[in-house]
Amino acid sequence: MSQVNDKPSYWRSLAELENDPEFREAIEREFKVPLDQEPGSPARRRFMQVMGASFALAGLSGCRWKEDKLVDFAKRPQGMVPGEARHYATTMEVGGLAVGLIATSYDGRPVKVEGNPAHPANLGASAAWHQASVLELYDPDRSQSPLNDGNKADLAGFDEAFKAKVTELKAAGGKGLYILSGASSSPTLAALRRSVAEKYTQSKWLTWDAVAPGDEERAGTKLAFGKAHRVHLDCAKAAVIVSLDADFIGPAFPMGLRNARAVAAGRDPDAARMNRLYVVEPAFSQIGSIADHRLAIRAELVKAFAAALDAAVSAAAGAADAGPGQPKPGAAFLSDAHVAKFVDALAKDLVAHKGTSLVVAGPHQPAEVHALAARLNTVLGNVGNTVSYTEASDEPSMREQLASLVADLNAGAVDTLLVLDSNPIYTAPADLDFAAAYAKAKTRVAVSMYADETAKASTWHVPLAHPLETWSDTLAWDGTLGIGQPLIAPLFGGKAAIEIVARLTEDVAWTPKDLVRRTHKEAVPDDRKWARLVQAGLGAPGQLEKKSPKLEAIAPVKLEGGEAGGLEVGNGQLELLLTPCSKIYDGRWANNAWLQELPESFTKLTWGNAALIAPKTAAALGVTDGTPARLTVGGQSIEVPVMIAPGQAVGTVKVALGYGRTSAGVVGGHNGDTQPTTPVGANAYKLRSAKLHRFGSGLSVAGQGAPLHLPTTQDVHAIDDVGRKGTDDRVPMLVREANLAEYKKHPDFAKHVVHHPPLLQLWEEPVKYDGNKWGMAIDLGKCIGCSACVTACQAENNIAVVGDEAIRWGRELLWLRVDRYYSGKADDAGVVWQPLPCQQCDNAPCEQVCPVGATMHTSEGLNDMVYNRCIGTRYCANNCPYKVRRFNYFNYHLDKVGPTPWHGAENDRHRVRAMVFNPEVTVRARGVMEKCTFCVQRIQNTKIKAKNAKRAIKDGEIRTACEQTCPTGAITFGNLNDKQSAVAKLTEASRAYHLLAELNNRPRVSYLARVKNPNPELV
Asked: Residue 329 maps to which CATH number?
């Protein structure tokens, strides 16, 4: 029999796994401070920072609150019904990767964005970035006027100065004119670039994006095919998929959201074929979390692994026309028994699935890895089936372009440097010292949404318009044209990047709409067709011509330094892995509080970054969770707290980029103003160099003192030894999973994990579900833990930001959480995800203990909250076994702004902030309980429309915010009384089960057990 102190098979953190005294003391109470005490106030600078996104999110929708409009309608626009939502197709790109979006607007005020189901790049899904873009739109920290040498100016002054400079540059043939832009797929910007090259023959246009993909892929395909190509994946056709350090289902990967949908669809154990995933990576990624087999090795070892795999596959596949394969490399780690077995089994599986396999290389892996991936796909006959190619431009890498710009700056060759939507002073490799070089340009113009680090060092800064404020166009990875349209006039007078470039080409009379329309005039000459194009938001998909490139011989890869080493390395030779943050990307969204407060998928860390270290490496270094550490590599150092990361490669230290901003804004950190705020996290760009771009060896780590209490959401609801024993027993019941072979033998295995007598009621059912009975099904086999659903819920339901201090106290307000459980051994852990909304129990324990009837059941099965009744006893939270109810301890929107509910909106900054609210949802006041409502506002709106049309509600017509944004389609909502509905069928599926059903709560959220498809040779 299991003992109390036995280690659990499923665990949320290493502290819980070890059950150490500090952990037990920390979770002795549900909250870290007594509930009858008001926590000590942080310093004013920190308070202003963490509350920056919540100060004025004052509800403008309640009749008892004063309502302010940006502009009153003197005459109602045609077709507009006040208070009724309107939807507009648009587009947005991040790092040159475009997706299609549908933006929802109320009375000319955009409040929500969703994915465009017709766009092939995302198929209706969206990432947390896209969901949080509306908060960025109403951010009062955005630039509100041009700056001239740091002083406030006006656009007329800029135009006059810029016009004089244009005259001067034209006379010189463009000599000394340099333009540095962020990665962009815009055809209009590309057309203007060509026009600039024609008018200014000696000018130079360069591109810099700190983490955008493409460079290594182009170099690798050129190595494999003799010419650079773009790689297109078709994951839906793949039976066996291999990731070589490629998180190809993430939003930062080309067509990542589409790939996520395809991979998840292939994980259905009831389908004729279930795909199998192999992932080789240094640290957990989204694709790694759902892999059937995962090998954790340092990023620098992936090249040798790819060469070994090519050697094994080439020997077995017998593809003589593809030329010789790689000789087996002499890397020491390949002699490890576990690694050798992995390579052998993987090679056999790939050869057994010729034409239906797929090998994907990570964007940050060197060109040789991409070349080997291309060779493997060719040898295996995958080209034209699971992977295809289109020709790409053969241009220098962005690192090479930036280095050449710095060389020209230092040589005094740059007269005028125009920086478009890029922040190189913050993101450039530290050894380039871009700031010093930038100062040598005579005229420096920065066009950006914020007065960021580069803008503050510029001669002129011009505010950049938000994507929802201007016309734009994009090309998706497959060539699909996207058209973006403005939903609101620029709030702060921002200009589109194409408007500024048009001043160079002297198209100054052209508006962004004119410029975009001109670009596509030849393809879409008819105004009616143009109107339809704008309405749809996209053109015909897949406009790029597919190629079948011929494979060339690839020389044996050269392994240098740690690339040929073993699985373990000592301090001083550790590998530093620098990755874009899954929340704030390269730092551009550091001032977005929704993203700062979103728990990071694996660590559940909010408001900052950390050095993630494998348990074995951490033990050798003498550090633990929260230990402040100094990271040193290449003569550069930063200080950042440590977090132990189960399942990470031994010897790899992972740090997220994008933090430590000094000119982000009130939320993300800024200096030099009257109210400076502390930078959030550590700036890992300081460790970056021309040699160490995304990963490299030579890192040393030194602990700097006692562990800090980090703002994480992982261990908030843990309990003592006895409760922990219960957790150990319960977690396998909560996250039920099996192998495919086991599932085929026992399809209903999930229903037999828990055995209990029949559940009976002591009294007659209080509610009769004669009409609708709303329910939800969540497929654990499809969830990838991306947390896009969490931000979608926050945007939809006006959920406040509480700040890092409140997170430390265990007082987060997010209505939806994605629980992460580790399984197995700490050094070789697996991951299981479980989204947890309110379970909407039919026999709800919260309802039974509420003394005022504030939480009650509706006739359609919703567990509703009557906020006006709630008196804050919190009995319901104590009685909820799922811990999905949130208590609003403070009026986070208004408390510190003024004594009246509307006082906060009197301030101009706060008035703009308040525009982000969804008017369909009540803004909660202090002292009430909050929780998931199944987006009842969406239910009611659809019911009204259906009733007015005298028709029944169609299955799938109502979609909750979390369901709508989910990249993989893991969440399904609908009417359980409709036995033909998708949710009813899933609820009755053999894999379906309910959480803690033995408690007789009778939840109406069902879960589908996760099924994996491992290789029998590796089980």
From this structure: 3.40.228.10
